[in-house]
Amino acid sequence: MNKLEKNIKDAVESYEAPYSAEAWQSLNKAMWPSKATLLKWAASSAALLALVVFGYSYINNSNEVVTDELIVKTIQNKGSKTLVKKVENLAYDTNERHTTEDSSKEITEFNTPSETNVQNEVTKVPVTELPSDVNDNSNKPAPKDENNTIVVDENKTENTNTTVALKAKVITSKTIQCLSSKFNFTPSVSKQNAIYEWHLGDGTIIIGSTIDYTYEVAGHYSVELVLRDLNTKEIIKISPPVEITVLEEPSTSFTYEMANTIEPSTYFRNTTPTTTNLHWEIENLKSSNLENIQYSFKHKGRFTVNLTATNENGCSTTCSKTITIEQDYNLLAPTAFSPNGDNLNDYFMPKALPLMELPFTLTIYDRQGKLMYQTTDSSQPWDGINTQDGIPAENGIYVWVCQLTKENGETEIYQSQIVITK
Q: Tens digits of per-residue pLDDT, 358-416?
């Protein structure tokens, strides 16, 4: 129900007097505005329409640049996070519709977006009559999508490959070494933006700035350093070759055997071919440069024997073996005797000395280091008498020392304890 219908209804329902012209005129005046009011409404509408037409005409005449047909690049101002849109060389004359001059300008917006959105923004614009230098002064046509729209990617960077003069040269302190020696190779420049690839001449390739390498076979080898690009792995530079000589080393070896005689000796025999120098070492007990050696171990245990051989090139190798001795050896000397005149165990003499028939000196001391007896004759054993004063020694522990000279002139020292019990 509109206003007219409502007013009529209300008037009819509330009006009880009989019809009259004056009453109907009064009702009609209440429902409709006056002519003066209608004139005011019409004047206001006309003024508003004139204002709209004037504004449209003013804006249309002053807008010389058609902004909906421009490539607008969005960049981020370095000094702040202010968003800047730059219009580049795409101004059009509104009358002739072609490019007239460079009218680039910057428009600053204050609604700063996030940094990620600014950096990844791609702006699309309709294709118009673009000049040839619009795409970074390139003669190539701008890329288009399926809607025939040019796509401008702000993340695209110019390819600026620059050729860098890299240096490849092999540096080594020694070019001639023995087979077991380690070669060290370094480049002339060690910190370059490249992959260092070493070709060692024996089929081996090692990646690394500085390397150490030991060859397995003697001979001559040509070493090269190859520099490769970090990304493409393509060869950038190859060094001049460096000649390496690896010298042969002797194949050192020896054998040994133990003799179960009065003196349990061990014999060592060299089996190294074509050597110029030999050196034996038995755990600080014995050393010799002879071809073959013999040694008597005095105490049980495990002992390491080394033989070092050197050839004509000056290269040497060492062969090592471990010897196991099952029991001590002290010239077969007893541990006690009883010099009481009963003809039973009345004398002391190491049993091996008369049998070996080698020069020796046997000396006996008491526990305070006082000399009790000394002899160089195996037929004169100690009878328990102190030769300094002729008084028989008391029961107790005494120390004996024997210095023995072997056939080859070497001297060996044996010592232990003897107990007198009467």
A: 999 999 999 999 999 999 999 999 999 999 999 999 999 999 999 999 888 888 899 99
The label of the residue with tokens 């206003």 reads 3
238 residue type, one letter: I
Does 254-325 match 170-247 at the fold level? Answer: yes
d(CA 5, CA 118): 61
Mean pLDDT lowest among 125-134, 157-166, 177-186, 304-313 = 125-134
Q: Does the domain at residues 170-247 carry the CATH identifier 3.30.9.100? A: no
Query: What's the chain's average pLDDT?
Result: 75
Q: Where does 336-420 sit in CATH, by number?
A: 2.60.40
- In the predicted model, is pLDDT for residue 140 greater than 60? no
172 to 183, 242, 249: CA distances (angstroms): 7, 9, 21
The reported pLDDT for the residue numbered 259 is 86
pLDDT tens figures, 73-96: 334 444 444 333 333 333 334 344
What confidence tens digit (pLDDT) does each residue in 226-237 have? 999 999 999 999
In the Cβ-directed half-sphere of 94, how many Cα atoms lie within 13 Å?
A: 9
What is the pTM (predicted TM-score) of this model? 0.51
Query: For residue 295, which of 403, 412, 400 has the smallest C-alpha distance?
Result: 412
Q: Where are the domains of the chain?
A: 3-62, 67-153, 170-247, 254-325, 336-420
Say what the pLDDT of residue 30 is.
54
Fold of 254-325: Immunoglobulin-like (2.60.40)
